[in-house]
């Protein structure tokens, strides 16, 4: 089953699905775009060969359309609460201690314990509060033990924009 936190493989490396959304009746996996060269890149998820459908450069996101009969779990989004604890969960590891230091309209700034930082293959990992996805891990700075995540507000606004068209 394809869901937030599941793995996919691109160029022989494990990568992480940040969310699964429905736009205009079509299913999409969403992850960070910096792991791809561009639209048309190939990947494998849940035994299927897939292609990057669209890169949203303004948001740092990649959309991968899924076949209509795919077994998926649509992601439930929450709103980030500043100065509250959050968890990063993917199918290979969990980072239990993370705090939302600041939440803007499009980015979340996260503080980590320096001994439990996200690793490069954790890009795209969903960030959860109260069991709901509030963001998608994008980058970290090891010397400050801080990270940046793309806010769930972006995915919600994307759904609204696509529905209007």
Characterization of this structure:
8% of the residues lie in helices and 47% in strands. The protein is globular and about 40 Å long. The protein is mostly beta strands. A hairpin with a 2-residue loop joins strand 3 and strand 4. It folds into 2 domains: 59 residues; 72 residues, Thrombin, subunit H, CATH 2.40.10. 38% of the residues are buried. The strands form 4 sheets. A 6-stranded antiparallel beta barrel has the order 9-10-11-14-13-12. It has a 4-stranded antiparallel sheet with strand order 3-4-8-7, covered by helices on one side. A two-stranded antiparallel sheet has the order 1-2. It comes from Methanosarcina baikalica. GO terms for molecular function: peptidase activity.
What is the fold named in CATH at topology level of the largest domain?
A: Thrombin, subunit H
Total number of strands: 14
Which blocks of ≥5 consecutive residues have pLDDT under 50?
A: none
Number of helices: 1
**Which class do the helix and strand fractions yield?**
mainly beta
Q: Helical content, roughly?
A: under 10%
Question: Strand portion, in percent?
Answer: over 45%
| C-alpha-based Rg, rounded | 15 Å
The main sheet comes to: 6 strands, antiparallel, barrel
Q: CATH architecture of the largest domain, please?
A: Beta Barrel
> Which descriptor suits the 3D outline?
globular
- Through-space gap between termini: 29 Å
CATH class descriptor of the largest domain: Mainly Beta
InterPro entries: Peptidase_S1_PA
Organism: Methanosarcina baikalica
Keywords: Hydrolase, Protease
Protein name: Serine protease
């Amino acid at each position: 089953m394809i869901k937030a936190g599941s793995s996919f493989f691109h160029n022989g490396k494990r990568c992480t699905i940040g969310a699964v959304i429905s736009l205009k009746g079509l299913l999409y996996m969403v992850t960070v775009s910096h792991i791809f060269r561009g639209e048309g890149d190939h990947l494998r998820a849940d035994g299927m060969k897939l292609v990057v459908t669209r890169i949203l450069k303004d948001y740092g996101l990649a959309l991968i359309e899924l076949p209509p009969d795919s077994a998926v779990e649509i992601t439930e989004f929450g709103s980030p609460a500043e100065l509250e604890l959050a968890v990063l969960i993917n199918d290979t590891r969990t980072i239990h201690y993370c705090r939302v230091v600041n939440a803007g309209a499009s980015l979340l700034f996260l503080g980590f314990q320096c001994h439990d930082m996200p690793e490069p293959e954790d890009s795209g990992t969903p960030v959860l509060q109260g069991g709901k996805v509030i963001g998608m891990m994008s980058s970290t700075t090891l010397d400050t033990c801080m990270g940046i995540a793309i806010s769930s507000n972006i995915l919600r606004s994307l759904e609204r924009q696509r529905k209007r068209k």
